[in-house]
Amino acid sequence: MAGFATGSGRPLQGRGGSPGFRFALYAILSVAIMILDQRFDWLQRAHYLLQGATYPVELAVSSPVAAWRWVQQSFANRDALETENQRLRTRLRDLELRSMRYDALARENAALIGLRKALPPVAQRWLPADIVDIQLDSLRQRVLIDRGSVNGVTGNQAVLDDQGVVGQTMYVGPWSAEVILITDPAHALPVEIQRTGLRTIAVGTGDSNSLALPYLPANADVRVGDVLVTSGLGGVFPPGYPVARVTQVHRDAVQPLAHVRAAPFARLQTDSNVMLIWFRHDNPAAPLKISHGELTSGDRTIQPLPVPVKPAPPPPAAAKSPTAAEANAAAAQRAAPAPARKRGPPPR
Questions:
Q1: 67 contact partners, CB below 8 Å, separation of at least 6
Q2: 57-66, 105-114, 153-162, 250-259: the lowest-pLDDT one
Q3: pTM to 2 decimal places
Q4: Could you say which architecture CATH assigns to the domain 123-285?
Q5: Region of 293 on the Ramachandran plot (φ > 0 left; ψ -120 to 50 alpha; else beta)
Q6: Cβ(199)–Cβ(192) under 8 Å?
Q7: Does residue 180 carry a pLDDT above 90?
Q8: Domain ranges of the chain
Q9: Cβ atoms within 10 A of the Cβ of 176, count?
Q10: What does the pLDDT look like over 39-54, one tens digit per residue?
């Protein structure tokens, strides 16, 4: 018994390798996984499968809130519902009158500027989507929509609402997609000032009511109230879509850059529906996809133009024949004797 107790206090040899060997093994395994993920996108596939698997859980978590709202709506007061219905009818009638007025103004404007037909729209298809989850904090500005790859949604796809640019799809699952908003700190959107055409970058600040323009010099022509639209760069949004309005411009004499803030047009905090847009690739206003600094598509019909032929130089002018008076003067000059050279004093 004493010998067994003494032996039980000693560490057992042969169980597991040394820490250095395990560290080297884990390092080699990590490098191999990174190389495989770089070549075959294993982690992207795993993220795709996990997002599809967790989507029912997200719906189940949000179901009690939806059920409670349904119960509240079911037991709402009838008089309140009738009042709300009458208010909505009145607003609908006002909107119809306003729409008729806008249509008449649009037709009159088209006739005044001589347009005969409208330009083909750059948007080819659109798909409405409902927001099922939202995350708005200082570090992440994301929403989850109920459309995924089975609906044709792809990564880096433009997302809009009826007011302006919302963001773009980031992670796409089978039945859902995560949208990064333009106010996310990790999002940067190429824009231009509509008044001057000055191009810059709008960066998210983590606040759903504010965008930053950190790359404008202090002497840039920007004012409060300027409208920011997409510049068409970046390969996601076509040019001319409304983004934000400048709300603050601060210039410091000792700082080379101006402090500019803008408020997004999109209702990022209250939106419940958004639109996914597909663009016509053959339209000149369609955004061009860029990968590793190169365009992924181009126009093969554009070829070099021939060099124009250089025109021949004009023939030299014919020599003018001398007149008789000029000929006589030249002959007299040749016949005249040379003037005598004046001799100096003889040398001594």
A1: none
A2: 105-114
A3: 0.54
A4: Beta Barrel (2.40)
A5: left
A6: yes
A7: yes
A8: 44-112, 123-285
A9: 24
A10: 777 777 777 888 888 8
